[in-house]
C-alpha cells in the first residue's frame, strides 16, 4: 500500500507539472511564477530571501531573477546601505503577468477540486495546518 506521504509527494509533482502546462501560455514556468508570487508578496525582498522561499540555491535564484528582470517583470534596485544586496519588486508588466497567470492556475485547480466534489475550503485549511506543522518542525 502506498503511504499518504508518497501520495502527497506525487500530487505535488503532478500539480507542478500541470501548472507548467497552464503557465506556458503566459510565458512562465512554475518556478518563474512562484518567484513572481514571492516578490509580489514580499516587496523589497532580497535574492537570498527568494532563494530560501523557493528552495533554490542563491546562484540559481540570481539567474532566475536576472532573467525575469531582462523580461521586464522584476526590478532589482540596490538596498540603501545594503552593499551588493538588491531589493526586488514587480514591475507593472510583472504584476499584470502574475495576475493573469494566477487566474489561470488558481481557477483551473479550483474547478478540478469542485468537479471532484471536494470541499475546497476544508482542503485548504487541512493543507495549511499540515504545512504549518511541518514548518514548525
Automatic annotation (TrEMBL):
Q: Which Pfam families match?
A: MarR_2
Q: Where are the transmembrane segments?
A: none
**UniProt-listed InterPro entries:** HTH_MarR-typ (IPR000835), MarR/SlyA-like (IPR039422), WH-like_DNA-bd_sf (IPR036388), WH_DNA-bd_sf (IPR036390)
Single biological process term from Gene Ontology: response to stress
Note the PROSITE patterns from the entry: HTH_MARR_2 (PS50995)
GO MF annotation: an example: DNA binding
Q: Which SUPFAM superfamilies match?
A: Winged helix' DNA-binding domain
**Gene3D superfamilies referenced in this protein's UniProt entry, alphabetically:** Winged helix-like DNA-binding domain superfamily/Winged helix DNA-binding domain (1.10.10.10)
All residue ranges annotated as the HTH marR-type domain in the record = 1-137
| Keyword flag DNA-binding | yes
Q: Which UniProt keywords apply?
A: DNA-binding
Q: What is this protein called?
A: DNA-binding MarR family transcriptional regulator
Per the UniProt record, the source organism is: Janibacter alkaliphilus
Amino acid at each position: 500500500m502506498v503511504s499518504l506521504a508518497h501520495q502527497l509527494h506525487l500530487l505535488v509533482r503532478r500539480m507542478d507539472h500541470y501548472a507548467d502546462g497552464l503557465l506556458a501560455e503566459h510565458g512562465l514556468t512554475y518556478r518563474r511564477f512562484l518567484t513572481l508570487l514571492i516578490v509580489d508578496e514580499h516587496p523589497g525582498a532580497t535574492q537570498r530571501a527568494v532563494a530560501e522561499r523557493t528552495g533554490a540555491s542563491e546562484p540559481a535564484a540570481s539567474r532566475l531573477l536576472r532573467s525575469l528582470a531582462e523580461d521586464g517583470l522584476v526590478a532589482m534596485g540596490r538596498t540603501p546601505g545594503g552593499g551588493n544586496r538588491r531589493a526586488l519588486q514587480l514591475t507593472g508588466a510583472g504584476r499584470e503577468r502574475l495576475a493573469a497567470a494566477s487566474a489561470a492556475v488558481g481557477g483551473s485547480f479550483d474547478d478540478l477540486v469542485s468537479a471532484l466534489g471536494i470541499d475546497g475550503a476544508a482542503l485548504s485549511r487541512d493543507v495549511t495546518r499540515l504545512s504549518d506543522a511541518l514548518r514548525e518542525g
